[in-house]
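Entry type: protein chain
Record version: 2
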Amino acid sequence: MSANPLGPLARKLMKGVIVVELLGVFGAYGLFHKMNNSQEFRNTMNNKFPSVLEVYYQSNEWAGVYGIREQDHEAWSAKRD
């Protein structure tokens, strides 16, 4: 019997999928970390990607961390006045 020619290709594809998934996980963590530490960055996200900021707020609320959304809105409205 001959060797399976798809074996090396399947391994390469699987490694590629794992690398892409790891990049996604680390990218999401980096984005969360930056939003968690910078109210200015959250304001930028609010202007450019409000749905991403909403996911950030909801994930914090699900984790039991409340008040970030309110603090942001108060700070941003005070800055506009």
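Comment: The chain has a mean pLDDT of 92.
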